[in-house]
Write a structure and sequence with these properties.
This protein has 634 residues and is α+β, with helices and mostly antiparallel strands. It has three domains: 211 residues, no CATH class; 80 residues, no CATH class; 274 residues, Rossmann fold (3-Layer(aba) Sandwich), CATH 3.40.50. Helix content is 26%, strand content 24%. Strands 1, 2, 19, 20, 21, 23 and 24 form a seven-stranded antiparallel β-sheet that branches. The chain has a five-stranded mixed β-sheet with strand order 10-9-8-11-12, with helices on both faces. A four-stranded antiparallel β-sheet has the order 6-13-3-15. A hairpin with a 2-residue loop joins strand 4 and strand 5. Helix 2 crosses helix 8. The protein is globular and about 70 Å long.
């Protein structure tokens, strides 16, 4: 067990008595004090480079002197250089199991799943943008891959619907991964794509159906107007659906990046999808030219934040077209037929629309792969081989680091250029990053979060942003901020009213059981600033949501604290963590879940975990502790 985790566990057990070390203002947002920034050190840029020959085989044994690295065409000095190769069976290290937790203690800390000399892999199964038929094909071929996969390759499985769902955390056990695909992965048609089943049967539009029964529209101008209106309505619905898919996809990428950023090393994101509605590139244009694609400027704040998070997390994207080999709509037995009869221009329009859409989709996939250091798999029915290639290629790479000669962090996009002296080799690496000042004020999203009234009615948080994603029921547990929480019932008796500060839904009824939550928080991810008097100032938000068995939010509790430490207490917090105490009401009968999050309001970092009440409701009661605000230490 790491020293930090041990400290956080001890702190969680002692949190009520130590909560005096932070000033809480439960009904008022902490006001920032006049500050000067506490510098965090020199910025280091990490670049993973995959080098392959003309046969796409990894090239080994290159030296740092073989590489030339530039930023915006300015030569940079390589500070460190390391080659990574796919480990042999003798080199494979088993993933360290989590230590046994004390009674009622839970943490979002997870042991680093990396091998001795390799990356980790994420399989993202995109149900939101993929037809049902293609979802089934992906699952079948993944099962085929896992039957022959060698133990020792750490893989996590995520699902994407209208939110990101963690189906299986990192494991190197192929048998466990197969069980997850068999039992936990639910195949379901997406409501936000036109051909939801993938059979082509529901591709005919309303306007096409009217046209089908009106071979010569010139004889009926009124019907022409109806067709035009129907076409406009279809276009608006399609745009709204695409807008929703882009939003949900971007939210998922943001949540995934926050989950992965706490894990060291390279991550290979193998993304199976039937459609890629958003280009998650560092230097993507504000809008995609094709009108069928979404304008990312609508989500500019979150888009930029997500791109930066993926970059810092060393994520290489491997997009895989789940549709396999695609064919023209006029060649499909399911979609060709009566809608083209009597309309000689209809097949041409359908082919043109298909070609435009396919071009944009493929272009997006190729760009995502190129800009992040991955590889796109397009127009192939062998998805099993695609997974094997992605994992193998992504396990053989070189890591270069450098400190930029340009120390002016003004948020501009900077291009990275890597070259080799040897000709005829292909390089894959991320092509740039946003030069945001690590010590700058919070992002727009963070400002919106920190400016809200925490005591406002549910759901307490804005519709988007770090906390919105962190508090989603059954979502991944971000670990930008590592913390532990001891959860115990206060007593065996029930109460008819909610604990003060709890914001229950209108239809929520008692009796309730009261639970004590004692936190221990790692302060190293908290953005502290310092004033001339030597005081260190942080602003932290603790939020607990209560969900019922159907995933409905029924109760919520939010507490912001102003953590004002003198230098001695600040050093003590760095070594032992920050304590906090909450109490929350949960209905006495039924199945419920606590979704608990910690938010750095100045740096917009988050940590979260989820605990079923069934795991703690039979534990011995904790001694009731006073949770009144305490004065700030001096």
């Amino acid at each position: 067990m790491s020293r930090l985790l041990h400290s956080l566990l001890v702190l969680a057990l002692a949190a009520p008595a130590l909560a005096q070390q932070a000033q809480t203002t439960p009904n008022q947002q902490p006001k920032p004090a006049p500050t000067t920034t506490l510098r965090t050190g020199t910025r280091l840029v990490v670049v993973d480079v995959v080098v392959t020959d003309q046969r796409q085989h990894p090239v080994h044994n290159l030296k740092a002197s073989d590489f030339t690295l530039r930023e915006n065409n300015v030569l940079q000095v390589v500070k460190s250089f390391e080659e990574h190769t796919a480990p042999t069976p003798a080199e494979i290290q088993k993933i360290e199991p989590m230590p046994k937790m004390p009674t009622g203690v839970f943490t979002n800390f997870t042991p680093a799943p990396a091998l001795a000399n390799g990356p980790v892999n994420i399989l993202l199964l995109d149900r939101l943008n993929t037809a049902l038929q293609d979802q089934s094909r992906v699952r079948a071929q993944l099962l085929s891959y896992l039957k022959q996969a060698k133990p020792g390759t750490p893989i996590a499985i995520f699902g994407l619907t209208t939110q990101l769902i963690l189906l299986q955390g990192f494991t190197d056990d192929p048998v466990l991964l197969r069980e997850v695909l068999d039992k936990k992965l639910k195949l379901k048609a997406s409501l936000l794509i036109d051909d939801s089943t993938g059979g082509g049967s529901d591709q005919e539009t309303m306007s096409a159906a009217i046209n089908e029964n009106m071979p010569d529209p010139d004889f009926n101008p009124a019907l022409n107007s109806v067709i035009a209106y129907a076409s406009l309505l279809e276009s608006q619905i399609s745009t709204a659906q695409l807008q929703d898919r882009a939003r949900y996809t971007l939210d998922a990428m943001n949540a995934l990046a926050r989950y992965l950023v706490g894990i060291p090393g390279r991550k290979n994101l193998i993304w199976f999808s039937g459609s890629f509605p958003l280009n998650i590139l560092p230097d993507a244009a504000p809008s995609v030219p094709n009108t069928e694609f979404i304008n990312v400027s609508d989500f500019n704040g979150e888009y930029r934040e997500t791109v930066s998070l993926l970059s810092r997390a060393q994520v290489a994207v491997y997009p895989v077209d789940a549709r396999g080999v695609t064919i023209l709509p006029t060649s499909s037995a399911a979609s060709s037929g009566s809608q083209y009869v009597g309309h000689p221009t209809a097949p041409g329009r359908a082919i043109s629309a298909f070609m435009d859409s396919t071009f944009e989709e493929n272009h997006t996939m190729l760009d995502m792969a190129e800009q992040t250091g991955g590889h796109a798999f397009i127009n192939t029915n062998d998805l099993t081989e695609a997974v094997a290639d992605a994992i193998d290629t992504g396990s053989n790479y070189y890591t270069l680091t450098y400190t930029p000669t340009n120390g002016n962090w003004k948020g501009d996009f900077r291009k990275i250029q890597v070259q080799l002296q040897q000709q005829g080799l292909e390089l894959s690496y991320r092509r740039g990053y946003y030069a945001d000042d690590p010590d700058s004020p919070p992002s727009i999203l963070a400002k919106e979060a920190s400016g809200r009234a925490v005591a406002a009615p549910m759901p307490l948080i804005s519709d988007y942003g770090a906390m919105h994603l962190a508090l989603m029921h059954a979502g991944p547990e971000p670990a930008q901020i590592v913390f532990s929480t001891q959860i115990l019932p206060i007593s065996t008796s029930t109460e008819d009213t909610l604990v003060p500060g709890n914001e229950g839904s209108k239809d929520l009824k008692g009796p309730y059981r009261r639970y004590s939550l004692n936190f221990g928080v790692d302060p190293r991810a908290i953005n502290f600033t310092t004033t001339p008097d030597g005081m260190h100032h942080g602003a932290i938000e603790f939020v607990t949501f209560v969900y019922d068995a159907e995933g409905k939010l029924i109760n919520a509790l939010g507490n912001p604290i102003r953590a004002d430490f003198n230098h001695t207490l600040y050093l003590n917090a760095l070594q032992h963590g920050i304590p906090f105490h909450q109490e929350v009401s949960v209905p006495a009968k039924g199945e419920y879940f606590l979704r608990i999050a910690v938010h750095d309001l100045q740096g917009d970092h988050v940590g979260a975990l989820e605990v079923p009440i069934s795991s703690v409701h039979n534990l011995p009661p904790a001694t009731a502790q006073a949770s009144a605000p305490a004065s700030t230490p001096k």
